[in-house]
Amino acid sequence: EKNITLDSATRIELSCRLDSKYSHLKSLQVTWKRGNETIEHISKTDDSRGIQLNIVDNSKLGSYYCTVKGEEGEISARFHLQVPHIEGREKPIIGYVGDGAIMICKSYGYTPIAWTWYMTNGTEQIAINDSLRADKYIINRVSANVTHLKILKLTKEDEDVYWCEATFELGKSKGKLKLKVLTLMVPLKPFLAIVAEVVSLVAIIFLYELYSKRKEKCAEDEREFDQIEQL
Known about the structure:
Layout: E1 2-5, E2 10-17, E3 29-34, E4 37-39, E5 43-44, E6 48-55, E7 62-70, E8 73-82, E9 93-96, E10 101-106, E11 114-121, E12 124-128, E13 137-143, E14 146-151, E15 160-168, E16 171-182, H1 185-230
Parallel strand pairs: 1-8, 9-16
Antiparallel strand pairs: 2-6, 3-4, 3-7, 5-6, 7-8, 10-14, 11-12, 11-15, 13-14, 15-16
Keywords: Immunoglobulin domain, Membrane, Transmembrane, Transmembrane helix
Organism: Mesitornis unicolor
Pfam families: I-set (PF07679), V-set_CD47 (PF08204)
C-alpha cells in the first residue's frame, strides 16, 4: 500500500512489480482497477506491470489496485492518489474569557493556492472572511504555507470546532482545530480547594486546642474542689 501526494496536474506512472520471493509462481495474470473500472496496462516486463495516468483534476484521484493472480492465489497492491494532507491539532487550544486566541494551520512541502477558515454552527460550516465581524476575526497569511486565525475578546460562545481549508490545483484539504474557552475561575479552583483544605485543617487544630484547654481547666477545677472538700 502506497500513498502518493499530488498538488498540481501531472503525468504519473504506477508500477506493480512482483517480489523475487514469488518468482516460482507461474501463469500470472495482472489486472489494474480503479473501483470497478479496469485499466489497461501500458508497460510490461517479466516481473513488472505499469499504467500511466494523466492527472488533470481531482476526478482522477483515489485508489488504484494492482492484482496479480496465479494458480496458487492472488496478491494485491493499492496506490492511493491524494491532495496534500493538512494536519489539524489533536489537543484543544485553550483560551480565557476576554482574552484572544490564535489558531495556526500549515501545509508541509506544498504551497496552497488559497486558504479559507470556517467556524461550526451546528452541522453547518460558515466561512470566516472580511464580511464576518472584522472586529472579532483576523486572518493573516503569514507565509504561502502558513495561515493564522485570531479571535478577539473570547466568550463561551466562541468555544467550538474550527476548520482551515487549503485549496490546491487538484482539490481541497481540511485541518480540524478545537477551541476551549475557560473562565478565570477555572484555574483558581485547585487553589481554592487547597485553601479550603488548609482552613479546615486550621479550624480543626484550633477547636482541638480549645477543647484541650477547656478539659485541662475542668480537671484543675475538680482537683481544687477535692482539696477544698478534704480541708
